Amino acid sequence: MDQHLKETQIDSTLVYDGSFLKVQRDTVALPNGKPTIREYIKHPGAVVVLALFEDGSVLMERQFRYPLHRVFIEFPAGKIDLNEDPLECAKRELQEETGYTATDWQYVSTIHNAIAYADEHLDIFLARGLTVGERRLDDEEFLDVFKAPLDDLLSWVKEGKITDVKTVIGTFWLEKIVAGDWKL
């Protein structure tokens, strides 16, 4: 199925090998046989945590993101380490960034946020049964943690105050989950 759309790799070159990201430049054959170049970022994958309190509020972060030179409102999230289980990564990231742990974890979905130029995927998890503890931020991490009602998140998405794709999608998932429209 869909073979008429497939592009076939002819050769591949690692253009940049960073500590976090790698940039690949491939020559591919298009479905019509003509060659072209595809440049893309290789990413190890990440997790997103939808941390839902019993009162219906949600745990959020405010963090400066250098590529866009501004602070974003986001869900707790982080990169999956080599050979790390995504659920274990989600538990680790929630505790490190926010200080919270959760007793109830559910897988929600996997999203691909930049399919035109990256192979990154994000595994989304719902966390409930939250208990606050000590944060353990990495030396290069600076972020604020706060609680917000789900209705505020929905308004912030509509108003353009939340534009981070994982947070927009996670907010819509939460809306459906809380309303009982989508079961996990």
The tally of structural domains comes to 2
**SSE string, helices as H and strands as E:** EEEEEEEHEEEHH
> Spatial order of the strands in the main sheet?
7-4-9-8
| Mean pLDDT across every amino acid position | 96
Explain what you see:
- This protein has 184 residues and is of the alpha+beta class.
- It folds into 2 domains: 3-42, no CATH class; 46-179, Nucleoside Triphosphate Pyrophosphohydrolase (Alpha-Beta Complex), CATH 3.90.79.10.
- The protein has 3 helices and 10 strands, in the order E-E-E-E-E-E-E-H-E-E-E-H-H.
- It has helices at residues 86-98, 150-159, 165-179; strands at residues 8-17, 22-29, 35-42, 46-51, 57-65, 70-74, 77-79, 101-111, 122-131, 143-149.
- Strands 7-4-9-8 form a 4-stranded mixed beta sheet, with helices on both faces. A 3-stranded antiparallel beta sheet has the order 1-2-3, with no helix packed on it.
- A hairpin with a 5-residue loop joins strand 2 and strand 3.
- The chain is globular, with a radius of gyration of 19 Å.
- The two termini are 29 Å apart.
- The model has no long low-confidence stretch (mean pLDDT 96).
Summarize the structure.
This protein has 184 residues and is an alpha+beta fold.
Question: What topology emerges from the helices and strands here?
Answer:
Elements: E1 8-17, E2 22-29, E3 35-42, E4 46-51, E5 57-65, E6 70-74, E7 77-79, H1 86-98, E8 101-111, E9 122-131, E10 143-149, H2 150-159, H3 165-179
Parallel strand pairs: 4-9
Antiparallel strand pairs: 1-2, 2-3, 4-7, 5-6, 5-10, 8-9
Helix pairs in contact: 2-3
